[in-house]
Amino acid sequence: MKTLFRFVTAAVLGLMMSVAGAQALISNLGSVTDGDYGGAPDSADQVRTGAVSMNVTAVRVVWAGLGSTPGVNRVGFYTDNGGIPSTTQVGTFFTNPAVTTVGTITYTGSATLLPNTTYWMVVDIIDDSEVAYTFTNSVVVDPSTQGATMPPLSAYGDNVTGSWDGTDTADLKFEVIGTAGLTANQSVPVMPVAASALLALLMFGAARSRIQRKD
């Protein structure tokens, strides 16, 4: 009984940690960089969720070119407006206090994306730096998203005014990090709750067994 209890305890704790933790949900960071994307001044790329929601906690962006005076940029998610980003933001801005440098920068924030919905990951650029882009988009999608995609469509324009000058089939290089199937207000997934209940039952059974042996 003691050996079984230890085994189940370890398995349950491992399950809770793996399910609850944030992870890369969709990414094309492994794609070849074909150049740096000149926004006007901002750049954006489409993301479409799968059959479950995505609770995004971070976005990693690859920068390929710097403005004359690198500054602090940010990222946000916006709804779709007929094939370009709308002015309706979802969640908070994703930020990083570090000055933009060539390479990958992680921006943290919070946004809950609804199932089977098209959104835009918008890079709000204040310093004329340029995000890396790829025409050979190699996308890795976590199975937990149940079908999320990164369509080959980007946009360039002004995020503040909502005026987007055009679109392109090149994709920005970025990665979306978070959890799938949860909302921002859910801190514990359904599976770990069930696992915790099982663990509690096992603890009760172990305690009862000790009491019976004393009798």
Write structural notes for this entry.
The protein has 215 residues and is of the alpha+beta class. It has a single domain (32-185), classed as Jelly Rolls (Sandwich). Helix content is 20%, strand content 42%. It contains two helices and 14 strands. It has helices at residues 2-20, 190-214, and strands at 23-27, 35-37, 42-48, 54-65, 74-80, 85-95, 103-113, 118-124, 130-134, 140-141, 154-158, 163-168, 171-172, 174-180. The strands form two sheets. Strands 1, 2, 4, 7, 9, 10, 13 and 14 form an eight-stranded antiparallel beta sheet that branches. Strands 6-5-8-3-11-12 form a six-stranded antiparallel beta sheet, with no helix packed on it. A hairpin with a 4-residue loop joins strand 11 and strand 12 (163-168). Helix 1 (2-20) runs antiparallel to helix 2. The radius of gyration is 22 Å and the shape is globular. It starts with a helix and ends with a helix. The model is unreliable at 2-19 and 183-204 (pLDDT under 50).
User: What is the succession of H and E elements?
Assistant: HEEEEEEEEEEEEEEH
Poorly predicted runs of 5 or more residues: 2-19, 183-204
Terminus-to-terminus distance: 18 Å
In one word, what is the shape?
A: globular
Give the CATH level 1 class: Mainly Beta
> What's the CATH topology name?
Jelly Rolls
Q: Tally the helices.
A: 2
Helix content: 10-25%
Mean pLDDT: 84
Structural class by SSE content? alpha+beta
